[in-house]
Design a protein that fits this description.
This protein is an alpha/beta fold. Helix content is about 50%, strand content about 20%. Helix 1 links the parallel strand 1 and strand 2.
């Protein structure tokens, strides 16, 4: 089964290019160009991993992340930014962001981290099912 990924970034061309590169490698990819759009998509479909830009207009990545976790606490989110800020990384990681990547993202590193996040999410879901039996 393909890993379902949602790419969220206000840079449309960047997202479209990244989406194509992931689809070629057999990922099931959707795109959102704002935090609000991402939240709507998350309520419509179950994703395995969200790749989320930190700096976006109207609703930034951190605020979007907080809302994503209220909708689905087991969803794994990775921050991506072209503006490396240690404070943002620390804040995101302490809030539960799975990982943090700097643009331009190396596609092989991104794929590896998406696969790690998917595996981690799968293990957590199995543990939750065992607890609820």
């Amino acid at each position: 089964m393909k890993i379902k990924v949602l790419l969220v970034d206000d840079e449309k061309e960047y997202v479209e290019s990244l989406s194509e590169r992931l689809q070629i490698r057999d990922f099931d990819v959707d795109m959102a160009f704002s935090g609000q759009s991402a939240l709507e998509k998350i309520q419509e479909r179950d994703y395995d991993v969200i790749v989320l830009d930190v700096l976006m207009p109207s609703m930034d990545g951190l605020k979007t992340f907080e809302k994503i976790k209220k909708i689905n606490p087991l969803l794994h989110v990775m921050f991506v930014t072209g503006h490396a800020k240690v404070e943002t990384a620390v804040q995101g990681m302490s809030a539960g962001v799975f990982d943090y990547l700097i643009k331009p993202v190396d596609i092989n590193e991104l794929i590896e981290k998406i696969e790690m996040a998917h595996l981690h999410k799968t293990v957590l879901e199995q543990q939750n099912r065992q607890k609820n039996k």
